[in-house]
Amino acid sequence: MLKIAVDAMGGDRAPGAVVEGALLAARDLEVQIILVGQKEVIEQTLSQHAPTASSIEVVPASETVAMDESPSAALKKRDSSMAVACELMRQGRVQAVVSAGNSGAMMATGMFVLGNLPQVDRPAILVVIPTRGKGTVIIDAGANVDCKPRHLVQFGLMGSIYSERVLGVPSPRVGVLSNGEEEGKGNDLTRAASEQLADTSLNYIGYVEGTDIFSGEVHVVVCDGFTGNVTIKTIEGLAGFMVGALKEAVQQSALSRLGYLLSRKSLHRAYARLDHTEYGGAPLLGLNGVAIVAHGGAGPKEIKNAVRAAKETVSHDVNRHIIEVLGETGDMGNEKSERLPRRIWQRVRSKLESLGDKPASQEEGRENKRGGKG
């Protein structure tokens, strides 16, 4: 049975909502859940529910990562629930990790503990947007604010693999998000990335605009993390506004309330398609492992669906396909000098592991050095 570690202390509603969602996943998804965090707190929360299934295990971790904590501060917490969960995956004791905690800290911890897949310079956050079809993938949705063209090429390749393998889209259409579809639009980054993407084996269709995300005409929207995060937050805000406006309209008169009663089944089906909790969490593609980040305010249903997203990513062997495809494309123009920061990062990590705990001043110095590398 597939084993998935869940960060029980991550998220605004942890541990209650996280534990409840993990229990739902263990019951409905045929997976074994390992809850990681403060053991007494987790066991007390478990006691508030029906008898715990044998598919639930608790692994202790003494520290937690706050939602507003910096990635460098989170990396110092070697016994945080987030770090211990990733370590379980590195050791092969679980096949995936799910956390509703600080996404920046999760990315940094995942890179530090697990490392990247071969040929992947930077992992990226992938988000599935509900559309008329099987969903549109946006990548990167916030992990990398400053990118180079080759990073966007890697994002496009990883997003296409996810769309095809997990969402079941044959030959996904890939586009670069820009301020217009014409070739002269965009900036230096998008123009260079577009030229490189056109030379790959992807079904690349060129520039796409924000209005194309919901049309079903594009399956993978590629962008830097800054643009992607703004796009995602705008979509979430608009969806919340629309739901609120609809509720207000329904309550305006007796006739409108009657209309709602007559059409509520159809409205509920439409809402289910727009509900981001149905899609669970966002995969951190490019890590040497499977990590899913759920929304910070995730409730039980979203935690359950985040576990489902983790199970699907593992079951469809997404990482193996990423390795194969990126291996076929080679370095995609990487220069030797561009790989230097990764080697420095690996040396810093090795030295930290060998030295163990050091005085705060020394640790802070190392974190400052590591934070300066891209």
End-to-end Cα distance, whole Å, is 38 Å
User: Uncertain spans, ≥5 residues at pLDDT below 50?
Assistant: 333-341, 355-374
Shape: globular
Multimeric status of the protein: single chain
The main pleated sheet reads as: 11 strands, mixed
Strand content: 5-15%
Determine the fraction of residues in helical runs and give it as a percent range: 40-55%
Query: Which series of helices and strands comes N to C?
Result: EHEHEHHEHEEHEHEEHHEEHHHH
Task: Describe what this molecule looks like in 3D.
The protein is α/β, with parallel strands linked by helices and 374 residues long. Helix content is 48%, strand content 14%. The chain contains 13 helices and eleven strands. It has helices at 16-28, 39-46, 71-76, 81-90, 103-114, 149-165, 188-198, 225-250, 254-274, 300-315, 318-329, 340-355, 360-371, and strands at residues 3-7, 32-37, 56-60, 96-99, 124-129, 136-139, 173-177, 203-208, 220-222, 282-285, 291-293. An eleven-stranded mixed sheet has the order 3-2-1-4-11-10-5-6-9-7-8, sandwiched between helices. Helix 7 (188-198) links the parallel strand 7 (173-177) and strand 8 (203-208).
